[in-house]
Amino acid sequence: MGREGPAAALAAVGPEEQVDVALELRGVTKVFPGVTALDDVSLDVRAGEVHGVVGENGAGKSTLMAVASGALVPESGTVTLAGQSLQAGSTATARERGIAIVRQEPALLPDLSVAENLYLGLSADRRPALAGLIAWAAGLLADWSPDVGIDPAARVEELSAEHRFIVDIVRAVAQEPAVLVLDEPTEHLAREDVERLFRAVRRRVEAGGAVVYISHRIREVKRIADRISVLRDGAHRGTFEASSLDEAEIVRLIVGRKLDAVFPAKHAGSGGNPVLQTRGLCGEGFSDLTLAARPGEIIGFAGIEGNGQRDALRALAGLSSRSGDVRVDDARVAARTSTIAYLSGDRHREGLFPGLSVRETIGLRVLPAVSQGGVVRAGRERELAESAVEELGVKTPGAETPTTSLSGGNQQKVLLAGVLRREPRVLLVDEPTQGVDVGAKSEIYELLRAAARERGMTVIVVSSDGIELEGLCDRVLVFSRGHVVEELQGDAVREDRITAAALTSTSERETGPARSVGRFTRWLAGDAAPLAVVGVTVVALAVVALVVNPFYAAPANVTGTLALISVLAMVALGQTIALMVGVVDLSVGPLMGFVVVVESFFLTAESSSGARVLGLVLLIAVPAVVGVANWALVDLARMNSIVATLITFIALQALSLVLRPEPGGLFDSRVTDILGGALGLVPFGFILVVLVAVLLQFALRRSRIGVALRAAGSDASAAGLNGLVPRRLRLLAFVACSLLAGLGGVLLMAQVGSGDATAGGEYTLISISAAVIGGASIFGGRGSFVATVAGALLVTQAIAAVPFLGLEPAWANYLPGAMTLAAVAVYAISRHAVAGGSR
Asked: What phi-psi label fits residue 723: left (phi over 0), alpha (psi between -120 and 50 degrees) or beta?
């Protein structure tokens, strides 16, 4: 463990001290392609202490804690908790042994409720019964703050960034872990919540726990930590008593050099006509913003979180509705204009695109400059990206490197490079250095100042860091309750003046209002809407059909339609399970037909009892094998689920034709009579489907496996960090889907009467339609089994109603297709509106 320069004398960690070690990492090495993230790192964290870990982005801090929490498997090294070795790569084991972690990006499941996320975040022995989940979650949130303002029944995707972090912190603290790891926990928190976090940290330490506190905010680390460890370039540079280091020394240890000037010189003059002018600008969360910004000027928007400064910035960018006058170079501009560029403070959700390279990330923001006739010119895009990387000093192996693999500071510089290449007249930046290390902060400040000075543009920044505003900005507008209450400029731009201006206007934090989302839109985005909407549509269609043709209600038609619904609903229930985990199973239709063909050899009147028993065994074995095969293609062969199940589709169809080139093998009438029987007008098959749907719905909402399935589909990576194993859940989903499709094939036997290789093929697409109409998301995480049955009823009813309505046969395809498109559009738009309203 190295010591460097004068700081070595400040280290006050004596080897003779006898202390209880809560977490011990020894010789940890972790290598990513082309990068050694950790190089033989050893670190001890004591029980009853707050251990600060600092370093630049890319220094290895988060990687080290990912190894400690089981999220990453190191090439070498050991992790020991209270003297017991931890299994590498198992987040569940680490959590059970007493490690809880709050990551830079919360590992929450967006499609699950706040309460369900809290539930999954705790070890099994601390979870309540699902029946009392909401009340339990409300209690945990109230412990954080009585007026926290988070609905435990709300989906996480509806929450603001601040509330997502609070939920993640609350569940980590509720675990009462032996070691609590906090990785940049205050980046999105308002001041009051930072104080609540610090109180929670102190309580954990007083109870004998250990806290690892990772942050770029040196002042916070100094305030809360007992000891501080410094990482640089993947190596441990020393552990020091926090009280023996000043901020300048910590910065020198982090960057390996002295930073003489963190902030560049400010704007010397204010000549020239205004670049940006606003008059009476109003929008959601703020009002009456009037300003005139000169060339080369950097203006800060400040205030207690939620008082309108971010709303004003987003309105200027055209990301929310606004009224009033906005002019650039004295020309009035529309809401969205190329003369104003915006860089979001939430780069993970609104800036970066997973999978895109540095070149593509930069090129995406300047498409007109790198394309011709609608076609991107790769050479021009590469040239522009490479020059931007060089100009802005982006540390990357090359322009083809995925942007998400870069450190936070370099990601921010890539995004900045993209917006600057658009040559805007006004640059709007939300939290320019959030999650960025000390060294990169200085570089970003210089880039912003140079852009303003050399290009004559105006830069407006929103920052929660008063020192940043003081050092960077020529002027600062302080917001309170949506109004600018004070304007500071020149020598008056000081952290204390900014803070005082905000606090003297209001002593209470106001929660930033979400974008206005109507009650009906919010309801449409919920779980109850699909069943209600489909139910109303079913009734409306029935009324129309009855008015046009009264024979539509004839008993024979009712029973026949319900029998058809039974088959479709059963396979659609299986499709819903597949969609729940984020996969699509195209093989269900041919599987139904294959089951019919196989059973035509075993369930005939001439079959022996032994053959019939074998036939019953195959009813389960065949679908199970198909389900496992689909899973193997997806999870072992790493194929896309559509491609994988299309292969199975073709294989099953071919096997059916080989076994039954022509229809044959009449089923025993006793079998078909039972399968086709009815209780009054209601077929036995429909009763079975309803029972299966109700049981599955109960399991979906009231069992751990139901929560786990939705979690795996909502975000597989986050599900893994919550101790789940998405691969196993997908196996379960594929097998369950195939078994239900096989059961659908059994019900189909009563309708076709013999082995027919073409039976079932049409059910693949309409099973997806029924599930989607019933509210299932093709991206995973959402669905309702009861609503799926309603969707099957609507699809079948629409097909059956065509002749009664006097329509052409083609309408049997048009109607289900139109209903599916309408359902996708309505649910997607409403869910997007609700999720977007949280930002």
From this structure: left
Residue 707's closest CA among 129, 65, 3, 125? 129
Q: Which has the closest alpha carbon to 356: 346, 348, 364?
A: 364
The strand pairing partners of 81, in sequence order, are 23, 84
DSSP annotation of 508 reads S
The pLDDT > 90 percentage for the chain reads 47
- Pseudo-torsion of CA 632, 637, 643, 649, nearest 10°? -40
Q: What number does CATH give the domain 5-255?
A: 3.40.50.300
Q: Which amino acid is at 698?
A: F
Strand partners, 286: 283
**Cα maximum dimension of the chain:** 100
The burial of 724, by beta-carbon neighbours within 10 Å (0-12 exposed, 13-18 middle, 19 or more buried), is given as: buried
* Buried-state track 615-642, b at ≥16 Cβ within 10 A, e below 16: beebbeebbbebbebbbebbbeeebebe
Q: Minimal CA–CA distance to 693: which of 575, 610, 813?
A: 575
Mean pLDDT computed over 127-153: 92
- Identify the CATH assignment for 264-339+424-513 out of 3.40.50.300, 3.60.20.10, 3.40.50.1820, 2.140.10.10: 3.40.50.300
301, 309 in Cβ contact below 8 A?
A: yes
723 close to 747: Cβ distance less than 8 angstroms: no
Backbone φ and ψ of 821, nearest 5°: -60, -40
pLDDT, tens digit (0-9, with 9 covering 90-100), for 743-769 = 999 999 999 999 999 999 899 999 999
What tokens were used for 787?
Answer: 């609503």
3-state secondary structure of 347: helix
CA distance linking residue 332 with residue 344, whole number of Å: 24
Domain 519-836 in CATH 1.10.150: no
Listing DSSP states for 66-130 in one string gives HHHTTSS--SEEEEEETTEEPPTT-HHHHHHHTEEEE-SS----TTSBHHHHHHHTS-GGG---G
Q: Measured between alpha carbons, how far is 817 from 44 in angstroms, rounded to an integer?
A: 61
- Rounded-to-integer distance, Cα 317 and Cα 340, Å: 6
Phi and psi angles of residue 371, each rounded to the nearest 5 degrees, phi first: -130, 160
Q: Which of 38, 97, 44, 33 is nearest to 66 (CA)?
A: 38
Enter the pTM of the model.
0.74
Q: Exposure of 261 by Cβ count < 10 A (0-12 exposed, 13-18 middle, 19+ buried)?
A: exposed
111-125, 364-378, 495-509, 541-555 — most confident range: 111-125
Indicate where the chain has its CATH 3.40.50.300 domain(s): 5-255, 264-339+424-513
| CATH 1.10.3470 boundaries in the chain | 519-836
User: Per-residue pLDDT tens for 611-633?
Assistant: 999 999 999 999 999 999 999 99
Residue 773: burial class (beta carbons within 10 Å; 0-12, 13-18, 19+): buried
